[in-house]
Amino acid sequence: MAKPSTRAEFKTYCLRRLGDPVITINVDDDQVEDRIDDALSFWYDYHYDGTEKVFLKHKITQTDITRKWIYCPDSVIAVVNLMPIDDSSASTNMFDLRYQMRLNDLYDFSSVSYTTYEISLQHIQTLQMLFSGAPQYRFNRHQNKLFLDIDWAHDVVVDDYLIFECYRKLSPDVITITGTLTGNTNLGNVMIGTSTVFDKELLELDFITLSDGQEVQIKQINSPTSIILSGALSSNVTNVTMTKEAYSDIWDDRFLKQYATAKIKYQWGSNLSKFAGIQMPGGVTFDGPRIMQEAQAEIDKIEEEMQSYNVLPDNMFVG
Questions:
Q1: From CA 101, how far away is CA 120, in angstroms rounded?
Q2: Please, what sign has the CA dihedral across residues 218, 219, 224, 225?
Q3: CA nearest to 43, candidates 245, 270, 268, 263
Q4: Element (H, E) at 187
Q5: Which among 148, 183, 180, 177 is positioned nearest to 162, based on CA atoms?
Q6: Taking the domains of the chain in order of start, what are their residue ranges?
Q7: What pTM, to 2 d.p., does this model score?
Q8: Is 241 buried (19+), middle (13-18) or exposed (0-12) by CB count in 10 A?
Q9: What is the per-residue pLDDT across 210-268, written as a single tens digit (0 to 9) for each?
């Protein structure tokens, strides 16, 4: 059991590292769970292994235009980029300036230098940044709302797609999604649920396992209660629940194990500090403050190391 792969094994590992069962660790089970959640929260924020980069696709609806914001799933903790809304970078017609440059100046790469072409492209990009600019947005992970500072009446229309570069946290626990699904192999692989969970727990391209054993991939989330699958269902389903697999290797992360153990140790010392100075039978006294002091030193060291060497680098703007 040296390599924990579940939450229960991880909890046992941390307590055993503190001396259990040789000595009694005076911490309630709920307190242990709370300290593990605290450790995970810090690990998500400051360790690059706690998150993954994803590109979130969203189809504009009339509701989005009316309220002027887009809902973001709970698992998204940061939005770092929004792909340009205009079509200047996607134009491929014969009247496009870059097309004409390629046609007239770069028809033969063997006899023409591409230095001028590259400089011209950079100049065009500078003009686009000057006159069009990058779309501005505001996001707060506790609101689950992505606000776009654009002219919603003219810049976007219903059924347009927006693509965001995001970071989502990785869950070490298996997610059992509430509600039920109904799907038919003859209905375009559309599955309908009875609760609003799809846009909270899942992202497009995620794999989910149905309770009848079928593993399917999400192609598109139409609404909080409707998803489209990438592949066909092997059989019709009615009122089945679903689960999303966990990244169980997270429980074996070195920093997470050390940090969670130190947090539990601090809780242990805090509990015993209530009895500081009280002499027990046999002359034994509890030294809770010393345990707290040792634990705090360990916490400070781990946090400093994690923030110094394991945090993702800041985004740099070059231009």
A1: 9
A2: negative
A3: 263
A4: none
A5: 148
A6: 7-47+253-309, 60-168, 174-245
A7: 0.74
A8: middle
A9: 777 888 787 776 666 667 777 777 777 777 777 777 788 899 999 999 999 999 999 99
